[in-house]
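Backbones bend. Our protein:
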Amino acid sequence: MEIRAIGTLVKLPVLILGTTIITSACSLMPWSSSDSDADKQTASSPWADSSTAQPAETAAPEPAAAMEAEPVPVENIRIKADYPQQYIVKKGDTLWDIAAMFLHDPWYWPEIWYRNPQVQNPHLIYPGDVLTLIYVDGRPQIQLSRAADGSEVVRIETREKTADGLKIAKLIPRARRTSLQAQIPTIPSDAIRQFLARPNVVTKEQIDEAPYIVASDEAHLILGADNRIYIRGELNKDRVRYSIYRRGEAFRDPETGDILGYEVIYAGEARIDRYGNPATATITDSNREVLVGDMLMDTDASEINYLFYPKLPREEVQGQIISLFDAISSVASYQIVVINRGSEHGIDVGHVLATYYKGGEARDRYLARKQLPRGEAEKLMVTLPNERSGLMIIFKVFDHVSYGLIVESTRVIRRNDLVENPR
């Protein structure tokens, strides 16, 4: 077995303040190979679900294992020519951005990720971890190095060089400033924090039956935290806290004209102080202005997991963008869109889809100069092919619609643009 390292020569200090750097051992197993039963209990994808940060010195909860699939042909895994020979993970990095440093197609990252059994929590990546690309049996593989005690690693360039002229760098361990160190998310949490992990799609019946704000104390037009409000409608007296939503647009399928659901936009939280008709409540938190007429619904206990497994859909997807969240005419990177495909179409959290703008029509000026027979004028018009405009990652799925975050855009993305498998 040939193992060829690609990277800068690194010189590690043997001992600094009693902290030892333990580097990754080379694996003889690719990502998709089967592990022993014991290994399956401790190794998984770095994108598996994990909603809370873990202390560096304790083991993180084991996420759900990714579904095993056939290995991707090595020729499909295209390594970028300018990939970093060695990369130290920084606070603020995302797994998608790191994968894009190494790969032309970041969704193939799991194919090159090596789960080192000698590293604590090998399914997660933390700031200070060192990533190095090597080749094992002709397949690219990312290996991770982490200090044994979970301390952060800092790269220091030196003026020294090897006999071959390669630069020598030192990796120095440094204690983490906090005992609770958050792992790197797949997508930037700031991009969907305004979304508050509470997108919701409901039926018309749910909207019609929902209690609503009929008035406010002192007749305020725009309400916020600590304002008193009055609620009309049937409330569950076993509940004290409700989420406040505003009715958004109806999601209509552009292909069939059917209504797929109604969007309700999260506005805040309310606490019921006194039941009655109307009931009295207090706004305890607001994400945007609260208005008379806004609805109260059960608090959505679900959360967006920022760590998940990016993957291509198993089946062909052909859909369209039907809504732009908090945008009027177009969106770009790190904005949110809604598509007319959901769980009933095989869509799942983590699916990577491409957006395409429809090709227009062009008049063939060359053919126009020729004498065409009567009735063949339509030959002058040529339909241009669809062109890719961006990539999205699906982060929340409903029955008929899904929400996606645009992670890459080469031009503006608009409502009714096509959504398909990347090609």
User: Anything to note?
Assistant: Residues 1-68, 175-181 have pLDDT under 50 and may be disordered. The two ends are 33 Å apart (CA to CA). Residues 250 and 262 are 4 Å apart (CA to CA). The helical segments are 37-40, 95-102, 109-112, 189-193, 204-209, 365-368.
